[in-house]
Amino acid sequence: MNKRGQTTRKLIKEKSYQLFAEKGFKEVTMKDICMAAGLSRGGLYCHYNGTRQIFKEIIDDLMNMQDEEFASKMELQQSAIQILDDVLSRYETEMKDSSASLSVAIFEYFSLDDNFSDENAIAAQYQLSVQMWHRFIQYGIDRGEFQPVDIQAVIDLIIFSYQGVRLYSELMPIGPELPARITRQIRQILVKTETEVS
Known about the structure:
By secondary structure, this protein is mainly alpha-helical. The protein has a single domain (about 55-195), classed as Tetracycline Repressor, domain 2 (Orthogonal Bundle). Helices cover about 75% and strands about 0% of the residues. Helix 8 crosses helix 9 and helix 9 (about 150-170) runs antiparallel to helix 10. The chain is globular, with a radius of gyration of 19 Å.
């Protein structure tokens, strides 16, 4: 695909993301995306055959971006604590901003019969997150920066608290103190204190 085509696909995904966050998955149409992206129907269908394809690519991009973020920083031997602080800071910001949350759209997308039956795609996404976090937490333990925790239990705490807050923030007001408490507790569980390090 040429550079112009890549730029157009990026624009489509950016505008679609905003629509999915605002309206959920089921309410967004290809016509909505055409209008938001300033494209004709032919121009849009030249790149995507429907909202499902666009949404799946957005989710895949988000997963790949986070995986690459962990992998590239670990490859550079960056401090596990600094990597964790960066990720938790981003998570906290995202949990506070319900207007940018795809949680409802994700729930709607994966609730569709043909998506759910496709070897349970949401379980596959969850497993990708588990693998990514497992590699990272083990990296922190191996470096002596993290506690020797029950890795799976901590991963479940991270994933389900993050997604739970993002979903609930669509249904009720969530104050900034709640995401801060969650990220503070996750950090406290993982990071060794100065006395434990020495």
